[in-house]
Design a protein that fits this description.
Strand content: 15-25%
Shape: elongated
Helix content: 40-55%
Radius of gyration: 23 Å
Distance between the termini: 64 Å
Structural class: alpha/beta
Oligomer: single chain
């Protein structure tokens, strides 16, 4: 039988009250919550969720509609180019970026990592782009 001393029980109770324990029984784990702990590599669930959401580039409903109505096919190669362009724009502090890939154009909200709209070659010729702060020509 596994015995637990009184000090271990006390520390688990305190950690639980402070919201630092996840799981139950033998599966219980202490989750670091301080800035120093996070800097050392421990991440809270909230941090991991934000990181995962930030990683993935997504399409708005408007952009999805434009892709469908204009017959634009976004290949994995194209997505890779857009993602690389978004990373570069993010590094420069951009917020709303026009990303040109081949004969297609995408306007991307950088902080939300969301493609707002998409245009094919014909649509690009007739458009004036406003409310953007940067352009990336992806190749």
């Amino acid at each position: 039988m596994n015995t637990i001393d009184q000090s271990d029980i006390q520390s688990r109770i305190l950690a639980s009250r402070a919201g630092l324990v996840t799981g139950h029984g033998a599966d219980a784990k202490t989750v670091p919550r301080t800035q120093a702990d996070r800097a050392a590599g421990g991440k809270s669930f909230s941090d991991l969720l934000k990181l995962k959401a930030k990683e993935e580039l997504k399409f708005s409903a408007h952009a999805s509609s434009r892709l469908k109505s204009r017959g634009i096919e976004v290949t994995p190669e194209t997505m890779g180019k857009i993602e690389k362009a978004v990373e570069g724009a993010e590094g420069k502090g951009a917020r709303d970026t026009l990303v040109m890939v081949k004969d297609m154009a995408f306007i991307v909200n950088i902080p939300n990592r969301t493609i707002i709209t998409a245009m094919d070659g014909e649509s690009v010729k007739d458009n004036i782009f406003t409310n953007i702060d940067s352009t990336v020509i992806a190749s």
